[in-house]
Amino acid sequence: NPANSAAAADMSTYLIASNHCDEAEVVLRDLIAAGTRRAEVYLNLGYCLQLAQRDVEAIGVFEHALELDPG
Question: Which distant-in-sequence residues (6+ apart) come within 8 Å of 18 by Cβ?
Answer without folding.
Answer: none
